[in-house]
Structure formats: C-alpha cells, structure tokens
Amino acid sequence: MVSKRKMLGALVTVSIFSSIALAADGGGSSDPTILSIFPPAIAIITAFLFRQVIPALFLGLWSGAWIVSGLTLEGLGSSLFRTIDTYAVTALADADHVAIIIFSLTIGGMVGVISNNGGMLGVVEKVARWATNRRKAQLGSAFMGLAIFFDDYTNTLVVGNTMRPLTDRLKVSREKLAYIVDSTAAPVASISLISVWIGYEVGLIDQAIENISGLESAYLIFLNTLAYSFYPILAILFVLMISFTGRDFGPMLRAEQRAVDAPDTADDMLDSLSDADDVTPLERKGIPDSLSGSDTVSMELPSRAINAVLPILVVIVTVFAGLIITGEGETIREILGTADSYKSLLWASLLGSIVAVALTVVQRLLNLEEAFDAWLEGMTSVAPAIVILALSWSLAEITSELRTADYLIALLAEDLPMEVLPMLTFIIAGLTALGTGSSWGTMAVLMPLVVPLAWAIIGGGDAPHPENMAVVYSAISCVLAGAVWGDHCSPISDTTILSSMASGCNHVEHVRTQLPYALLVGAVAILLGTLPAGFGIPWYVGLGVGAVTLWGILMLFGRRSMKKNAV
C-alpha cells in the first residue's frame, strides 16, 4: 500500500511539474494565471499522498520559486536556492513571524518544565476526579478551549499540552484531541467580542469602508456580522456534539478505535502515537520528558497541580493585561482592538516560563540546571512545528507574489447575483486559506474586495435597502468564516500545525482525520445557513436547522469506539 501510494505520488508530482511547464506560455502576463494555484496545490496534494508535510511544503515552495523565475531550465536550479536565501529569509525577517516563533518556543519550554516538575500530572489528577471517562475528558478539553477565548495561539498551546496526558490516560486519540483543540481555537477567538482577532477584523473592515458612505462604523458592522458566522458557530457546536455523544465516523472513528484498542502501559498512560523513544538526561534521573514521548513523572516528585496551573494562569492573565497595556481607547473593546497582540504573547510566555522555573527550583523539585534542561527539552519539541511554520510562511510569500487570491477571485466572481455573493465569498475565502495556509492573510486580501463589491451589488449608494444589508453582513462574515474553514482543511495552516504540535499528534493524521468533519460542517454552513440567508431567510433559522442537521447526521452515521469503559 505504501509503495503504491509513493508511486502514485511520484506520478502526480511529475504530472504537475509537466503541467506547469506546458502552462508556461501564460506566465508572461501581468495578470495572475492558473500557474498561481500550482504551488499550494502541489504542497497540499503531496502532503496527503506522502503524509510528510515538510517535504510537501518545500516542493510547493520550490515550484513557486521556479514559476517566478520564468520556468526556464536554468531557473529550475537557481529557484532551489531562492527558496532559502530569498523566501525563507523574507518570511523569517517578518517581526510578527519572529514573535510567533519565540512565543511558541518559550511556551514549549514552559510546558517542558511543568511536565517534568509534576505539575502537569497534578492537573491531570485533579481533572481526572471529574473526567473519569472519555466523554468527560473530551468535554473538558472543549470547555477549556471555550474558556481561553481571547487568543487562538494561547488557546491551542495551553489546551493541547494541558489535556494531552489526561486524554492519553483515558484513551482519547491524539487525533481527536487535536481536532477539539483546533476547532475551539480560531472559531472561538474569531467571533469573541474580546479577542486579539477583533482588532484585526475591525481594522480590515474600517479600511474597506473608507470610501463608502452610508454604512455604520466598522465595529458595529462587525457586531452585525456575528449572527452570520455559521461555520465558526456550527464548528463549535459539532465539537460539543461529538464530545457528548462519543460518536465518530470516517478516519476519526478509526483513530479512536486504535486508541481504545491500544494496550495499557504500566501506569495506565497511553502514548501509542509517540515515536520518540530516546532517553533524555532528565529521564536518567527518573523524570521522563513528557514532551518527547513519555507522559509519566517520577513517583519521587509530588504531583502538585499548582505548579502547572499558576504558570498557565500567569500566561493567560499576562496576555490579557498586555493587550490592555498596548491598546488605546476608552472602552475595553477599543483597547483590545488596537492592542499589540504579539508583544502580549511574548511577555506572557516569558513570565510563564520564569514562574514555572521559579516554582520548580524553590520547591527543590529540580535544581536550576535540571529545570533549564527541562525548559530546553520543551523548546526542542516545538522545533518541527517551527520548521513547518517557516515553510508555510515562505509559501505564503510565493502565493502573494503570484497573486493566487486575485486569480481565484477573477475566476469565480464574474456575473454574480446578489443572493449568492455570501456563498461565493465563503468558497473563495476557503480556497484561498486552503492554498495559502493563512486565515489572516486571506482576510487581508479579500476584505477590501468583498465589502465594496457587496455594497455595489445591493445598490448601496447613500441610501441602502435595509433588507439587503443582510447580504453585506453575511458576505463580510463569510470572509472570516471561509478563512477559518480553509485553515481547518489546510495542512499548511499555522493554527493547524500548532494544534497537532500541542496535542502530540502526527500533523498529516490530524489534517486527514479533521478534514471530513470540517467539510461536513462547512457544507451544512453554506447550504443551510449562508445560502438561505442570502435569499432573506433569518439567520437564526439557518443556524437552528444546521445544528439539527449535524446532530441527525452524527446520530445516523456516527459510531462509538468504546468497549469496556464505553460511555
């Protein structure tokens, strides 16, 4: 099976490069061409075929650099070096990207410390008193994701790393945890009234309406769009449905069955999906490194939950405080809307690490050298994700240069009826985010185009028809919803990468198991929410019908994987 997949992958790769060469004649135009979709398409296809995301991203990046060079034979060789000396350097020179890398590394270090000082095990033991079965473990993970509503990066890294030992113990698959983490991160932050997303979204809307008279303020427009955010809302509801019922289908059901069938370890911890068997210096002292493969802590260390909870709380509080400090305005919403989220994340991860190390050393759980070793081990565990992030950002540079989003818009947005504008906006945003791996980048590209387009289509002028404003609100909302959906489906999305990393799940397996759920919820959101809303059906009708439909599909096709301890 593997050899056949590799042969098929090689054939597809050769075919794609041949197609690029054949399409080279259109490469000289200043307008974006079909060539612009090849780099992300190559990355996505090869990632699924070979189940190796790093080579897939690099292949997509290389093909993009070759297209930019003019598709010459000489350019094929020189473009290989452009991937590293131009696009990778440009991506890593971006201050925001560097902030995300430092934040991820520092949070990884903090998690390494609290995993090795007994704190994480203490949290697991506390939660385990309530989460005594798989259902409660999944619901606990989902509700923790809902609680950390103000930032998707913080949400992903905290929930994934905190809940992983418990879900392992109760035989919830790493794929399921990654799905729960991913689906309660961006969907929650994107529609929260107080989050780092809101300032970005409102800023884009404000820029888009700059030359339009007759519309409300950008923030009021944003509030009006929330009711039409069918995909984020239904994605959250579907997570809760799956967690409550214990039912799954498709690749996720098989992953859950593998987790249930896996043999117990000596301390009843499941770590069947980890591939790291190396013994670290801490493990030789009887303190296994949970992030590199073993989620158990030496019995010589007390399992005090406070040693994990306090650093995590410091991170959460510092992020929120940092947003207030760096923001400006009279109301909390205005302050958060202008805040520097990256500075807040950096401050939070640094203070969290300091508190974690201080607690560990003061209580003599580890000496300073051992605590620092644990911190470095935690940072090491994040390294593969950092490589993937760097490659995905580099690929985003290529797609921006090739104007992939512009090509998709030109392809799909001709002769557009007003009623289907929101649906088409969702599809374009989803495809753009799928190809670029960036929901924020997708919103930045599409918002300035969609808002004036929607305003013109409804015949806005200075006196818009009130009944048609729903189309404008829905179209704006679909930029966000489609971007989040594309992020969930894309193997090159940073939030998807971070979700698999924090959950200790193979990245391609996370995307493969999550994809059917994202496709289902996306289809229901479009067909039962977005499309009817375009024809004047109230948003709450679409939302209610969509939720009932998802419940019915889950009951009809979903199956429980539990055996002895089924719930």
TrEMBL record:
Pfam family, one: Na_H_antiporter
Entry's transmembrane regions: 33-50, 57-77, 97-124, 177-198, 218-244, 305-325, 345-362, 374-396, 416-434, 441-458, 515-533, 539-557
Assigned keywords, A-Z: Cell membrane, Membrane, Signal, Transmembrane, Transmembrane helix
Residue ranges of domain Na+/H+ antiporter NhaC-like C-terminal in the record: 189-529
Subcellular location, principal: membrane
Signal peptide positions (record): 1-23
Locations listed in the record: Cell membrane
Mode of membrane association: Multi-pass membrane protein
One Gene Ontology CC term in the entry: plasma membrane
Name under which the protein is recorded: Sodium:proton antiporter
Taxonomic lineage from the root: Bacteria, Pseudomonadati, Pseudomonadota, Alphaproteobacteria, Kordiimonadales
